[in-house]
Amino acid sequence: MKLCFLVEEQYRYDGMPVEVIAQLREWGHHVDVLRPGSSLLRVSDAVRAGSHDAWVLKTVSGGPGLTLLEAAAAVGLTTVNDARSVRGVRDKALAAAIGRSGGLPVPKTYAAARPELLAEIPDADFPLVVKPADGSSGRGVRLVASPGLLAGMKEELAADGMLIAQPYVPNSGVDLKVYSVAGELYAAQRSSPLHPGQTAFERRVPLTTEVAAVVAEAGAVHGLDLYGVDVLLGPDGPVIVDVNDFPSFRQVPDARARVARAILDLARTGGTVVRRQAACSGAGEAG
């Protein structure tokens, strides 16, 4: 197969997608890599109907790669994930709206183009978690305990552009990251950016039936096949605080081969998920 990966400079040497690209090439597939953030691209030449079996995006949230992915989708090419679905989770305000309308356990979410507008949030919703609407990898996530503290952060927050704010969900201080590889789910714990004084060794952990059901539903609501969900175990059950397309897949066993195989499946089926059983082996060659 012939695949095109859109890779931002930030991920040029990252295990995802470098290892997946290497695996695909070892299996005999042709992989082109475009770096939309550091190259002058002739879009009319880069996106040609029929030139690739699928396009795969691994870029920062606000990077230019999504535009190229959407251009590929516009001329009928297969994209992994679906380009519209990627757009729907890259904008965190939009993702919250989609999630809540789809019945997912997503906190009440406020969006503000300017930080001073956050002053209109009722005092009862504090403490707040405030973060950039196009944030990723925990960038710019802040826990704001009171309206008074928020008022003193206007200049700091102004550099983040569009903001979202959600009432803080009481939790243990450990985040749960659940990865979905075309239907196979894997969970890992990690330290929370909101609790810097509390460290948690990142490791794979058992996945409960309740959390698995929520994460699987998140994939269906957002239309994603390769994705990660940040889950907090709050007093009322699992709460989704973020959804990411094509995450790091850390702690996923044999992630290199599993993700590569999923990309091939999706490319062959035009982006339609070919579900696998979670217990099936990730060993062997995909050709």
Structure summary:
This protein has helices at residues 15-26, 43-46, 65-74, 83-90, 92-101, 147-151, 154-158, 209-222, 255-268, and strands at residues 2-7, 30-34, 54-58, 79-80, 110-112, 128-132, 142-144, 163-167, 174-181, 184-191, 203-205, 226-234, 237-245. The chain is of the alpha+beta class and 287 residues long.
Task: Give a description of the structure.
The chain has 287 residues and is of the alpha+beta class. The chain has helices at residues 15-26, 43-46, 65-74, 83-90, 92-101, 147-151, 154-158, 209-222, 255-268, and strands at 2-7, 30-34, 54-58, 79-80, 110-112, 128-132, 142-144, 163-167, 174-181, 184-191, 203-205, 226-234, 237-245. Helix 1 packs across helix 9 and helix 3 runs antiparallel to helix 4. The longest helix has 14 residues, at 209-222. The relative contact order is 0.15.
Q: What tags apply to this protein structure?
A:
4-stranded parallel beta sheet; 5-stranded antiparallel beta sheet; 29% helix; 287 residues; disordered C terminus
Number of helices: 9
- Give me the side-by-side strand order of the main sheet: 11-10-9-12-13
What is the mean pLDDT? 87
Low-confidence stretches: 274-287
Largest sheet: 5 strands, antiparallel
Strand portion: 15-25%
Radius of gyration: 19 Å
Order of helices and strands: EHEHEHEHHEEEHHEEEEHEEH
- Assembly type of the chains comes to single chain
Structural class by helix and strand composition: alpha+beta
Number of strands: 13
